[in-house]
Write a structure and sequence with these properties.
This protein is an alpha/beta fold. It contains 11 helices and 11 strands. It has 2 domains: 117 residues, D-Maltodextrin-Binding Protein, domain 2, CATH 3.40.190.10; 105 residues, 3-Layer(aba) Sandwich (D-Maltodextrin-Binding Protein, domain 2).
């Protein structure tokens, strides 16, 4: 009787093993990305998730803030910075996988005005930006740590107008926060990327800063040493694919081949 019972239990366990479905766990890719990428990167990430079955979690902030978080141990698989310098810092800390860094995008720097009917401004040496502001504020990302703010300050210095407008600058944590200040009318003008202006219907591009007034605006992307899943490498590679290109170019980014 005991032998028959043992055989019955063994047979039941074997049969049950074939009845349990195989579970395919999707991988989650954690991306730290410059705030200016939000509209385009959200669009691409949604399409990539639908195509692969994997998930993407994206944290947006100023590149400097994200770089410091990564260097302090924050778990991230992919980092996309709005300038090479902050990526350099992460790489110097030994947190970028060997050979897994490349420049993927370019951008332009613009002066935006509140509303859809803002007038055009000739951005040239000595232009009267202070006069345009009057008693209002010039919205910019943090000028010492966020790339958009750093590029903006460099451009205004090159044009010889920084000293006049510096007291009127309202600094925001990131470029999208600066965009928001102009969008809601808290500041009549602001300096953001061309792609940020394209994402908001309540601002007008008043003018584009000449490329020779600031360092080239380049977005490097890298796989970090924290990355373990195959999905991380797949997502990184897809950033240079046709689907990503369409999402980025739709927002005005220059895709670097």
């Amino acid at each position: 009787m005991r032998l028959q019972l043992r055989h019955l239990v063994q047979a039941t366990l074997v049969a049950s093993a074939f009845l349990v479905p195989t579970v395919a766990w999707a991988d989650d890719v954690v991306v730290f990305a410059a705030a200016s990428l939000k509209t385009a990167l959200d669009d691409f990430a949604g399409k990539w998730e639908a195509d692969t079955g994997n998930s993407v979690t994206i944290s947006y902030a100023g590149s400097g803030q994200l770089a410091r978080q990564i260097m302090q141990g924050a778990p991230a698989d992919i980092f996309i910075s709005a300038n090479p310098e902050w990526m350099d810092e992460v790489e110097k800390a030994g947190l970028v996988k060997d050979g897994e860094r490349r420049d993927i995008l370019g951008n332009a720097l613009v002066l935006i005005a509140h509303g859809r009917d803002g007038g055009k401004v000739d951005i040239e040496p000595g232009f009267d930006l202070a006069g345009l502001l009057g008693d209002g504020k010039l919205a910019m990302a943090l000028v010492n740590s966020v790339p958009a703010g750093q590029y903006g300050k460099a451009a205004l210095e090159a044009l010889g107008v920084w000293e006049q407008v510096a007291p009127s600058v309202a600094q925001a944590d990131n470029v999208r926060a600066a965009l928001r200040l102009v969008s809601v009318g808290e500041a009549p003008y602001g300096i953001v990327y061309r792609t940020d202006a394209a994402a908001d219907d309540d601002v007008t591009i008043a003018g584009t800063f000449p490329e020779n007034t600031h360092p080239p605006i380049i977005y490097p992307a890298a796989v970090l040493t924290e990355a373990k899943d195959a999905a991380d490498a797949t997502f990184y590679k897809a950033l240079s694919g046709d689907v990503a290109r369409a999402s980025f170019e739709a927002q005005g980014f220059k895709v670097l081949d």
